[in-house]
């Protein structure tokens, strides 16, 4: 079943070690946490996978996944360097049971028209997907929905769920969506769209809310709120659709909420966001 997972940095909480990340998840009442693939790979190599698994099990926290550790947007040299390191990281992720990774795709470009940009992404991600597949690792690609961002550059690019699924299918069978309810909402997605998905098409999920009183096409990507805070995004419908299709994986808050920084400490931030997650999970029927 789907579960509440924490990305500490997404809510302004800084953790330096795996132990700190796990402790943060427990403080906020989360059931899983994102982790550094390099730290986990180093520990697996030096201490063994069992020691890392024990850290998670003792805390009753799941290894939710990790950000794709490759500079795929940059130079070919940097991309290829990342490909060489990726098998070590994916192997460790598989060994500890956290074989999900994800990244986001800019919905526009000043350098490449749509077709050239599509080829660039497919060529960059196919080798990544092949390596990850060797270790049963899923890759989630996030489409970015806001029209305000899409219109900021010369050439529009993939920015809807359907278009991202088509590109994912062209990349590899272990590639699906990093599905963010913000981008689902701002790309004018519907609950019916979600209900047509197969759970295998979703690698990872983000949740948040949007400010009230702003037209959908005027929403700005960096201005969000806690999950369920305003009701602008149909979070209950979103979560209910994921439950109905049998999504079995992490659901992580990414609220970009500046007011969190005004709270007295990390514990307050974690508990505030954790409570918001409890409310949206309770809304699922």
Q: Could you characterize what this model shows?
A:
The chain has 285 residues and is an alpha/beta fold. It is built from eleven helices and ten strands. It has a single domain, classed as Divalent-metal-dependent TIM barrel enzymes (TIM Barrel, Alpha-Beta Barrel). It has helices at residues 18-27, 37-47, 49-59, 76-96, 114-133, 147-150, 161-171, 181-186, 191-195, 235-245, 266-282; strands at 3-6, 32-34, 62-67, 100-104, 108-109, 138-142, 155-156, 175-180, 202-207, 250-253. It has an eight-stranded parallel beta barrel, surrounded by four helices. A two-stranded antiparallel ribbon has the order 5-7. β1, α1 (18-27) and β2 (32-34) form a beta-alpha-beta unit.
The rounded distance between the terminal residues' Cα atoms is 13 Å
**SSE topology string:** EHEHHEHEEHEHEHEHHEHEH
Mean pLDDT level:
97
Low-confidence stretches: none
**CATH architecture descriptor name:** Alpha-Beta Barrel
Number of domains: 1
CATH-assigned fold name: TIM Barrel
Total E-strand runs: 10
CATH homologous superfamily name?
Divalent-metal-dependent TIM barrel enzymes
Q: What's the SSE blueprint?
A:
Blueprint: E1 3-6, H1 18-27, E2 32-34, H2 37-47, H3 49-59, E3 62-67, H4 76-96, E4 100-104, E5 108-109, H5 114-133, E6 138-142, H6 147-150, E7 155-156, H7 161-171, E8 175-180, H8 181-186, H9 191-195, E9 202-207, H10 235-245, E10 250-253, H11 266-282
Parallel strand pairs: 1-2, 1-10, 2-3, 3-4, 4-6, 6-8, 8-9, 9-10
Antiparallel strand pairs: 5-7
Helix pairs in contact: 2-3, 2-4, 4-5, 5-7
